[in-house]
Amino acid sequence: MDPPASASTTTTTPTTPQQPAFPSIKPLPRTPRSFQTPTKRINTGTDLSTFLTTTAYRDILLFLLQLNRSVCPRRSPAGGPATTYPLTSRPSRNSSPPPSAPDPGPRRFGNVSFRKWHELLADRAPALLSEHIPDSVLSFPTTPSSDPPSTPAGDGGGEPDTAALDRIIVLGVIEPYLRVVRRLILTYTLEPAGSHGVWGLDDHSFLPYIFGSAQLTTPVSSDADPMPTEGSVRGAPKTGDIVKPAVVEAQRSENMYFSAVGFINDVKKGPFWEHSPILFDVSGVKDGWGKINKGMLKMFNAEVLQKFPVVQHFTFGSLFSWNQDPDAAPVSQSIHAANQPSYNYPATTAPRPLRARARRRPGRRVLRAACLLRRAPPASPTRVNRRRPRPRLRRGHHRAQA
């Protein structure tokens, strides 16, 4: 086919071949939208299976993958050291109210003074948001401090670098939030609710292991490169160093993974393999932090997003929609989902007859009710003794004299 006439007279610049785009969340159309108040949708095991096919589940996973990739090291074009993103690369601000003094006396599930701090935070929340969010976002540069000044931010069209914004969320929002939570746990002796106990990673502190392992993976050259699934960045600590307290103390201020392990050492006593067996087993991985990062993502999907005790508290509205994802594959209901409550649906089986229950559990009340159904009189509770009474012998007489 001949090119159009306009193409023969216009000089075109050569373009590079299109690279595969990293999956990202599609922006919402700029049309008037009605706000939908978030509501609770997951009440039964069937709702859990439905959640796995919604656009909310898809968007949560994609957003997590984008945040995970944003803290992955970047390879230097000049062949120098790779650019890493430690915790000290972003300034932190402590905007939360200081904890109030705990009440005296031991508490089983934490000190009740935490409620006072929560009420104080709720009162100051609007002022804190309006005061700190604009300045915090504008104060972060769109490129890391170690990048050369000539490196343009974004795609050159005036749009900000989305990877830098994702790093702001991880290092400037999630990590400071975790520090506040850990401070509250130590101050008020709180006991976070977990669904696994010692034989698993706690649901409330899963993200630092994902992002912390991503900080130490093999560097990538561009956003088109796939996320490394093995290897580590040069100079990274070994995977087995999490059992060494000296290494943990040196790295906890630089890496989110070691920061979470350091907090475990602060609140738990005894051998590491005993109180944290899952992390101890993960420390034996020989393929580097990339392998650990891949496994943590799979574990988060299976043990957090697909578990009823966790996702039952999710709310869905305009941001996280309950609408079905047209590209979602059909999900078969797992044993875990089938064992969840179904109190919102009527029973599909009739109760057993009263007579059959009386045969299995012959209690006095059940037998009496069964007799009423048969219109038969109940049996006498007294037992008739038909045996001949034995004669009483006088003292000094033998049985033969009776």
TrEMBL record:
<feature type="region of interest" description="Disordered">
    <location>
        <begin position="72"/>
        <end position="109"/>
    </location>
</feature>
<feature type="compositionally biased region" description="Low complexity">
    <location>
        <begin position="1"/>
        <end position="24"/>
    </location>
</feature>
<dbReference type="InterPro" id="IPR037218">
    <property type="entry name" value="PTPA_sf"/>
</dbReference>
<comment type="similarity">
    <text>Belongs to the PTPA-type PPIase family.</text>
</comment>
<dbReference type="GO" id="GO:0005634">
    <property type="term" value="C:nucleus"/>
</dbReference>
<dbReference type="GO" id="GO:0008160">
    <property type="term" value="F:protein tyrosine phosphatase activator activity"/>
</dbReference>
<dbReference type="GO" id="GO:0000159">
    <property type="term" value="C:protein phosphatase type 2A complex"/>
</dbReference>
<feature type="region of interest" description="Disordered">
    <location>
        <begin position="377"/>
        <end position="402"/>
    </location>
</feature>
<protein>
    <recommendedName>
        <fullName>Serine/threonine-protein phosphatase 2A activator</fullName>
        <ecNumber>5.2.1.8</ecNumber>
    </recommendedName>
</protein>
<dbReference type="InterPro" id="IPR004327">
    <property type="entry name" value="Phstyr_phstse_ac"/>
</dbReference>
<feature type="compositionally biased region" description="Low complexity">
    <location>
        <begin position="86"/>
        <end position="95"/>
    </location>
</feature>
<dbReference type="GO" id="GO:0007052">
    <property type="term" value="P:mitotic spindle organization"/>
</dbReference>
<feature type="region of interest" description="Disordered">
    <location>
        <begin position="1"/>
        <end position="44"/>
    </location>
</feature>
<comment type="function">
    <text>PPIases accelerate the folding of proteins. It catalyzes the cis-trans isomerization of proline imidic peptide bonds in oligopeptides. Acts as a regulatory subunit for PP2A-like phosphatases modulating their activity or substrate specificity, probably by inducing a conformational change in the catalytic subunit, a direct target of the PPIase. Can reactivate inactive phosphatase PP2A-phosphatase methylesterase complexes (PP2Ai) in presence of ATP and Mg(2+) by dissociating the inactive form from the complex.</text>
</comment>
<keyword id="KW-0413">Isomerase</keyword>
<keyword id="KW-0539">Nucleus</keyword>
<keyword id="KW-0963">Cytoplasm</keyword>
<dbReference type="InterPro" id="IPR043170">
    <property type="entry name" value="PTPA_C_lid"/>
</dbReference>
<keyword id="KW-0697">Rotamase</keyword>
<dbReference type="GO" id="GO:0005737">
    <property type="term" value="C:cytoplasm"/>
</dbReference>
<dbReference type="Pfam" id="PF03095">
    <property type="entry name" value="PTPA"/>
</dbReference>
<feature type="compositionally biased region" description="Basic residues">
    <location>
        <begin position="384"/>
        <end position="402"/>
    </location>
</feature>
<feature type="compositionally biased region" description="Polar residues">
    <location>
        <begin position="33"/>
        <end position="43"/>
    </location>
</feature>
<dbReference type="GO" id="GO:0003755">
    <property type="term" value="F:peptidyl-prolyl cis-trans isomerase activity"/>
</dbReference>
<feature type="region of interest" description="Disordered">
    <location>
        <begin position="136"/>
        <end position="161"/>
    </location>
</feature>
